[in-house]
Amino acid sequence: MRNTNSKCEADRANEPRVLSPEDLNAFSRISEQYSVKKSPERASEFRQQGNLSFKVKDYTNAALYYSKGVCHADKNTEELSLCYANRSAALFYHSLYRECLEDIRRSLEAGYPSHLQDKLRARQTACLNQLKKLEKSNQPTINQATPPCQKKRSTCISPGVCVYFSPEKGRHILAMENKLAGEVVLEDEAFCCILIPSTNKAGKMFNTEDRHCHQCLSQSLCFVPCPNCSYVRYCGESCQKDAWERWHQWECPVGAYLLTIGVFGHLALRVTLKAGQNEVKRVKNSTSKDNVTCSPYKSDSPVKLSLGDPCRESSDHADCYHGNSYTGIYSLLPHVAQHSPSSRFLLAITMAVLYRRLQDGPPPDKWASCENEGVSGTWRPEMSMLGATALRHIMQLMCNAQAVTAVMVKDESGMAVQSSSEIRIATAIFPVLSLLNHSCSPNTSISFNTGIQTDLLNQFGCSESHVDNPETSCRGPHCSRMEMKVRQRLLLEQYYFHCNCQACQRDLSEESQNATESIAPGLKCAKCGKPLQSHMDRYMCSWPSCGHQITSADVQNKLKGLQCLLDEAFHLMERDRLDEALKILKSASSQANSILMETHPLQGELADATARVYATTGEWSLAASHLKHSMVAIQAQFGEDSIELGRQLFKLAQLHFNGGDCGVALSVIPRAQKLLSLHCGPHCEELQELLEMERCLQGLL
């Protein structure tokens, strides 16, 4: 029907279009830097780099280079067959005989040159012989690269742990009975996850996307590629097929755009693709269809929620517990009003562009079929709900996304003692884990299982020696790493709430009691060695008869100077100029000892760096001595049950082991095992090494 109101027509004529061809072209230009196209030239380059690594017997890097070649080569080409064949050789020297046989099969299927097949057949025979030997000796295949995917596990909440609702906190999880340290209180399966792409700022050749399956996140050396793009890779044909059927056949054509918009946009789309149109409609309509008899909550006291209880009308499902389901994801708050207008506009444009690009291909199966209708190959107007739903999910992810982490043991050449760090490998959305509230001093920790099951499993366990009625929490800044004012500002900016946890209440109380004068943590008087007190713009010695003073600016300058010396030492260590690095560290430590307590974090960093230098030169006793000094600062900052202390104990056990001090090493290992098992679970790489070390030492006694 035509509108006859001329004013209305004039207003509409002046309305800006949400998207124009120019907008889409600009977005295309930006995405060009994230090319995911196949490239035979690059495949050949990676194969040649793999050959160089193979010649120096670096079989791990060789396999990873060959895998990059596999991903960039076109399907059913000689280049692809050569990459598979060369990788099979690297896998053979890793004693990965079954994986080697698989690569030989793939190479032959891709058209491996007939005049080279004799060498490949000989390797195939050698693999079969090695497997027969292992079978006769009842030994498992050595160094299984990719554990077989097992049946996925659903969400499990420990007895005594329940979901509650209150108007102030919304839904949250509480443990209403004592839990022992190490006890798992919650297991949750990710609804969806996205591997984090690398920015490669550190210049590393291999990053998370080169080492982990893009479907199950398990580590591998023998990936199979997507036949159509060069970015994604899988631990095997099973994950490849599963990903293609679930979402990758629609993500693949827009792969460059997904890398451009980032992990949150990609994850929001994947959640929407997995849910499908019928499920989204069901969730959106269920509130109005349900015969709801619940009355609004009139008390601030938490109300226990049970799975399957009806929601209040117009509650958007946000006051009921849905378990591990799409409704549990949909009901997470998007905080639309809290997002700034510019943020809302940017997110809306991002999803609109992505939706338009998806329309260049056929609609996803779960969005092409509606109730009582067959599958259609065309986009219908009602499918715009896909873009709107993805927009809701990207807003939810700002507050509810969970970083999936893993412990990475650094492969540092020349270093006799391994160091490790926690790295982010993926971003996921969990329907139940997302209900956990924040605390700046959590009594629980998270561990992830990414290499055994097809679907990501999250375990949430108690991390203190004994917990009385813990309120489970884990996300956001920690009081041991950040001051209260900084923590509260970050939480308000990102999560839109003012934190009132026990740690913040304690810090606020101490701040008000010592508004004008308080002990400065880790700082000591350069004259008498007593602790310093902060007073307005200066620090004063806490011993009245001393009277020494120093301005805050002078203290900050001294700390900056020490940090610069530490950075310079690290720079020299990376270039194997150990004598120069040690000289600088000794000078910095001497300066630090005059103004810093041994519990100051900078003292810990200096001692740890010095220990690394001595360990590299094989001076185990000196290295252990300095590492113990660093542990004093680590324990003061993070606590005696912290994962940080556990990793230092892991390094201390290595030092004593390498130095041949069996008795001391055996005395350190149990405490390191306790902390690593507590925080990382029984299958972490560091814990497995400690078990091997313990068995070896016990055999020597």
Automatic annotation (TrEMBL):
Coiled coil: none
Gene Ontology BP terms: heart development; methylation
Pfam families assigned to the protein according to its UniProt record, in alphabetical order: zf-MYND
Domain MYND-type: 213-252
GO terms, molecular function: histone deacetylase binding; methyltransferase activity; zinc ion binding
Record's keyword terms, sorted: Cytoplasm, Metal-binding, Methyltransferase, Nucleus, S-adenosyl-L-methionine, Transferase, Zinc, Zinc-finger
PROSITE patterns, sorted: ZF_MYND_2
Organism field: Labeo rohita (Indian major carp)
Protein name (record): SET and MYND domain-containing 4 isoform X1
Location relative to the cell: Cytoplasm; Nucleus
Catalyses which reaction(s): L-lysyl-[protein] + S-adenosyl-L-methionine = N(6)-methyl-L-lysyl-[protein] + S-adenosyl-L-homocysteine + H(+)
GO CC annotation: cytoplasm; nucleus
Top-rank lineage group of the source organism: Eukaryota
